[in-house]
Write a structure and sequence with these properties.
The chain is of the alpha/beta class. Helix content is about 30%, strand content about 20%. It is globular, with a radius of gyration of 16 Å.
Length: about 220
């Protein structure tokens, strides 16, 4: 049975933290903040499946809405919102540390993962490792517009999970980009996966693979 999740909100922080908390039956003490893509929210089936799989293994997971999504339920982040979204990630990690006092991890799908890497590049103490689902290396069909300027400053270990058919980055492009990162990295390729990583019928299998690989990565 999946670990139960419960609504979570902390209005004392700025930006406030809002989402769902997955409490494992036998917590390891480690915690992961998991956030969403530019077009999604923390209720995305991918995030739910990954959070459940990690919680089953003992990790406490807070999947939360970034500040731009709390401001409006639909649409992409507006110009200038990224800095506040990164601060929202920082505050979510702070909130989770009061519940899971062990190692603190940051993760996200697409935009959420990108903001996690940018925050960690500026503040390596914010997380012990990163879980990056479908990193948006460049916009579709614009492979020269790389989002890697901060990679040489990223000194936090990072697991990249990429679909083999992701239009935001080919496997070859991701492998080349990882050479820019001085920290330990690993790439998990999901065969047949697009930017969403898996179809609904495959979500539980992919989520279990992500959970196992990430736990092995942070144990290394």
């Amino acid at each position: 049975m999946p670990a139960a999740s419960e609504p979570f909100q902390d209005n004392s922080l700025d930006p406030r933290v809002r989402g769902f908390l997955h409490r494992p039956a036998s917590p390891s003490g480690d915690g992961l903040v998991l956030t969403h893509s530019a077009g999604g929210n923390c209720q995305s089936p991918l995030l739910v499946a990954v959070a459940e799989a990690l919680a089953e293994s003992g990790m406490t997971v807070l999947r939360c809405d970034l500040p731009f999504r709390q401001m409006r339920p639909h649409g992409p982040p507006g110009p200038g919102s990224a800095e506040r979204d990164r601060e929202g990630l920082r505050q979510a990690a702070r909130a989770l540390r009061t519940i899971a006092p062990g190692r603190s991890f940051l993760g996200g799908h697409s935009y959420g993962g990108r903001q996690a890497t940018m925050l960690a590049a500026d503040d390596p103490e914010v997380a012990a490792a990163l879980l990056l689902l479908s990193y948006p290396l460049h916009p579709p069909r614009r492979s020269t517009q790389l989002r890697t300027a901060h990679f040489p400053r990223l000194r936090v270990p990072a697991l990249f999970v990429q679909g083999a058919r992701d239009e935001f980055a080919s496997v070859e492009e991701i492998r080349a980009a990882l050479q820019l990162i001085p920290a330990r990295t690993q790439l998990l390729v999901i065969e047949g996966g697009g930017h969403g990583l898996a179809a609904k019928r495959e979500l539980s299998t992919v989520a279990a693979q992500v959970s196992t690989t990430f736990r092995e990565f942070v144990a290394g």
